[in-house]
Amino acid sequence: MPPRRRTNKEPRSSAQEAVYCDLCETALVQMHCDTCDRNFCTACVGEHMASDELFDHRVVKFRSMNSNPLYPDCASHDKELCAMYCNHCEIPVCLSCLTTDQHSAHDLSKILEVLEEKKSQISNDKSELKQTIYPTYQHIASDIQGIITQLEKGYQDLITAITEHGEYLHKEINKLIKGHKTKAKKMKAKQMQILQKHLDEVKEKLSNIKDEMHLFDNVLDSNDISRLENVEGNVEKYRKLPDKIVPFLPKFNPRKVFEATLCELLGNLSSFSYSSDESGYCFRKEDDFPAAESSPQVVRLLDEPKIVATIQTDYKLLKNVACLSGDSFWTCGNGNIMKLYSIEQDLKLKSIKTLSGCTTASITVTPNGDFVFADYEDESVNIVKNKKIETVIRLQGWRPRGVCGTSSGDLLVTMVSEDKEQSKVMGYSGSTEKQSIQYDVDGQPLYQCAVYITVNRNQDICVTDHRGRATVVVNKAGKLRFRYKGGSHIGRNEQFYPQGITTDSQSHILIANTGYGSSSKNCIHIIDQDGQFISYIDCGLDSPWGICTDTDDNLFVAEYSGKKVKKVKYQQCTNDIETMV
Questions:
Q1: pLDDT the model gives residue 369
Q2: Within 80-224, where are the H helices?
Q3: Burial readout 210-246 (b: 16 or more C-beta within 10 A, e: otherwise)
Q4: Are residues 131 and 60 part of one domain?
Q5: C-beta separation of 541 from 558 below 8 A
Q6: 193 and 73 fall within a common domain
Q7: Chain center to CA of 429
Q8: Residue 495 vs residues 70, 451, 467, 504, 523: alpha-carbon distances, Å
């Protein structure tokens, strides 16, 4: 029987299933032929080796079978395997091919020799990638990230300078306006004083004239000649009318300022530019890079994550955890009280009660250190400052589920409608809405029930959709990047129930999978920023729910029914490992 090559339709049986001899199909397997990739019982091994003496059959115990190369099928002759390689035609050939004249004058090599040469070439390529190319690209990525950071700071300084200059101009303009107003008020007061004095003089003459007219009336009614002779009127005095004072308002002549003049006054903003230097980077070996430059990026996951601390809480059901520092963290669970615990002192430091008296939906500590919590029943998001609770977001028709802070100081909130039929993510700057993320480019809902939320280092927004049993990741603009539903590594009978979510310094996304019965695994899934599964954290966790990481990439896990917070060390810098060795 000639050796054959196993096809993709013939998967090797797992060690947990009974495997029978490929020849007699009745006896259990005891031996394995690496050459043919077939399994045999002891009685059938001799018959198999005698069936085709052309090939060197390598027979080993079934448990110790290795992965010797499988001969490729011949493209020209059905059911023939190729043991030789034609260097001229650059194709594998079988014995039937060699009997023809097609390859008679061609240089031939054993296919195993070609394989070894190819493996050697791949090994050299791998060594170059590992020792030179990959470290160089790491350095380039670090350099670009540094440039981005500097550019971001530079633009912030630029915007600050523009704002300050604008405020200066506003201040100067306001000063001029205030001066003009003050001058106008003084001129008004002066003119009013002059007119009032003039009015008082006229009224005084009116009174005098009235008295004189009254005197004349009395004399005219009398026949006393002596009285008539003694009357002397002042009519001549009043015949000269007072001067007419006509005030003139001062005129304000606003000077039109054209855009060019404004730009000249404000100052100009030059256009941006950049340069591209083909020789800006060069290949360098891993050892050529300074340790401080490469060490932050060389981190590996531990084969066996370790629980390094455990704190027992007094919740009946523990829902979430948020790191305040390396040894203290906030918690929330059933009830309306949030509690701050310390690992070093192994005790509760303080507690805060919600204003509404309702159960907290989620908590977070923002990048600037503020403690924020979402109140589901009260439809509010609140921040704690100086031991006082301040409501920063008040929702209407929506209930908050999860909250997190961004590096820019904004807040992201997951929420569901009151009828629980819709779900979305909203971005806020203070209490002002900045962004709404609800639908994909086809107008389909992104989330069925968005719960916990976090932001990755690349500014992707990562959300666990509990009802959809998926982790949904969108970019900063809200465009869908991927959905992670557990991946092919999860067994067919195993369910994915995502709860808490967090990220670390390597842009890993960590997702708490809370098991329900025997069909789901209580563990933490680790995926990369593109949604590819990396590893599990499975160290005896009891219903992991809320999770977070501290600045040293330690993982804090809130156990829902276990009522404990566990601090887990799951990765380590290779430099630290080498130092320990």
A1: 86
A2: 95-98, 111-128, 134-220
A3: eebeeeeeeeeeeeeeeeeeeeeeeeeeeeeeeeeee
A4: no
A5: no
A6: no
A7: 16
A8: 37, 18, 12, 25, 12
Question: Which of the residue ranges 275-289, 326-340, 551-565 would you say has the lowest mean pLDDT?
Answer: 275-289
Residue located via tokens 């370790």: 306
254 and 309 fall within a common domain: no
Query: Mean of the per-residue pLDDT values for the chain?
Result: 82
Question: Any alpha helices (H) in 281-342, and if so which ranges?
Answer: 291-294
Dist CA 453 CA 460 (whole Å): 11
Tokens of 389: 């609770």
Residue ending a domain, choose from 85, 114, 143: 114
Q: How far apart are CA 537 and CA 557, in angstroms?
A: 11
Total domains in the fold of the chain:
3
Clarify whether residues 530 and 386 are in a common domain.
yes
Token digits of residue 175 = 């000063």
- What pLDDT is recorded for position 427? 94
H or E stretch covering 404: strand 398-405
One-letter amino acid of 133: I
Residues 49 and 40: their CA atoms lie apart, in Å, by: 11
Q: Looking at this protein, which amino acid is placed at residue 496?
A: F
Q: Which residue has the tokens 């203070």?
A: 430
Residue 479 domain flag: yes
Half-sphere exposure of 80 (CA within 13 A, CB side): 15
Tokens 């899934």 correspond to what residue?
525
Question: 520 and 558: one domain?
Answer: yes
Q: Residue 537, Cβ neighbours under 10 Å: how many?
A: 23
Alpha carbon distance 412, 425 (integer Å): 7
Looking from the CA of 347 toward its CB, the CA atoms found within 13 Å total 3
Contacts of 26-29 spanning 24+ positions with Cβ under 8 A: 29/62
Segments forming the whole domain that contains residue 452: 298-580
pLDDT at 258 (0 to 100): 59
Q: Kindly report, residue by residue over 388-446, the tens digit of the pLDDT.
A: 899 999 999 999 999 999 988 899 999 999 999 999 999 999 999 999 999 998 899 99
Sheet holding 360-365, edge to edge: 360-365, 371-375, 380-385, 388-394
Cβ neighbours for 356, distance < 8 A, ≥ 6 positions apart:
336, 375, 377, 378, 380
Contacts of 496 (CB under 8 A, 6+ apart): 469, 470, 485, 486, 490, 513, 520
Please report which confidence band the pLDDT of residue 270 belongs to, taking 50, 70 and 90 as the band edges.
low
Please state, in angstroms and rounded to a whole number, the distance separating the CA atoms of residues 406 and 169. 33
Domain co-membership, 166 together with 59: no
With tokens 């028709």, the residue in question is 397
| 9 lies in some domain | no
Domain membership of residue 496 (yes or no) is yes
Classify residue 12: in a domain, yes or no: no
Residue 113 confidence class, pLDDT cut points 50, 70, 90: confident
Which positions ≥6 away from 37 have C-beta within 8 Å?
3, 4, 5, 6, 70
Q: Angle formed by the axes of helices 134-220 and 259-266, to 10°?
A: 120
How far is 3 from 82, CA to CA, in rounded Å?
10
pTM: 0.51
Phi and psi (nearest 5°) for 177?
Answer: -60, -40
